[in-house]
Protein: dTDP-4-dehydrorhamnose reductase
Amino acid sequence: MKLLILDAGHCLSLALAREVNRRTDTELVIEQGVTITATQLHTIAPDAVIIPPLAQPLNMTPAAVGEHADAVERCLDACLAQEVPLVWCVSDQLYEDGFDEPIDEHVVPTPRDECLRRLVATGDRIRNEYHRHLIIRLGPLFALEGSHAWLNEIIDSLIEGQSVRAAEDVVCCPTSADAVAMALVGMLQQQASGANAWGAYHLAGTEPVSAFTFTSMVRTQLATHLEGRGEKVELGEVTALNHHHDAKLRRVLNCRRVLDVFGVHQKPWRLEVGRMLDAWCLMRDDQQDASTGESI
Structure:
């Protein structure tokens, strides 16, 4: 199976590259740009095109969100012309006001924000015009590298002693980019084998949590890792932000369908953060060894 993913520097693109590198049944082509043409698709001949998400469209300018939506629709045109399946990953922020209960796949987002409505319109067009699509709604992605990675920004700020501000009144399900990459490969392998299970799916980490609690747990685990290495680092503090004073806003995705159809289990974000911090420590060792070698 050959996959094409756009936006080479995105954390999901990098995670997918790592996942494919450890497999023998999948080939990955990474496109630097954020869109693709029918001519390029004809030349590459992938089994699917994957578009990484805008991580926080609510915090982006209308122009940036509009450019992303336009790029997705150009990809749709190319996929239609070449009959190549399209996989579009989108942020849970499209459910702007959240829900009291976990959000099922059949619930199409109806945001008030104009930028988010532009993304929903793109999703509507995909659903209406092309059967062979997967719309993957994700919790907030985290990874150690790449754009939209979140976790790397938290770690860098804490290490530099900077205060990190995070919302205490928005509950979500942080999602490992590595876990998403693994799930996408598995889902597309099944589709290539005739599953024919197109449509919208939710994929997120387990344990709903506020961004403030998530960031605080990252700080705690980071401190533990550093202490275990014998390092004394004065980490920055985590400050709570509150935007919804009456009640907490919940964006919790119900991921039952992706389990029932494809057998994809959600990954606990705490375990994924711990694993990534282990990897971060190894990279820190390599950097320190390289620095010592250069000084010698």
